[in-house]
Design a protein that fits this description.
The protein is mainly α and 88 residues long. 69% of the residues lie in helices and 0% in strands.
Length: 88
Amino acid sequence: MARLEMPMNVEMESAIESGSVDALFELGKMYAAGREVGANLVIAHKWFNLAALKGNRAALTYRKEIASEMSKIEISVAQKLAREWLKK
């Protein structure tokens, strides 16, 4: 897997690489709120999308909420990033 968009501890990185739904959801919240990283709705949408695909129902709500603040192009980019992550 390519390096992620933020520095993180080894435990969190390992959880993300393994596809931990909780880690994916937490990353979405971090990017949506700009907590410990710069706020980035495209990246937040990507992580919420991945968490939702793995069954996190709250991620569906968060993804929908931030999508209302994004352009169609931004959403498209976020979806593309999520698909690329799944291929790795």
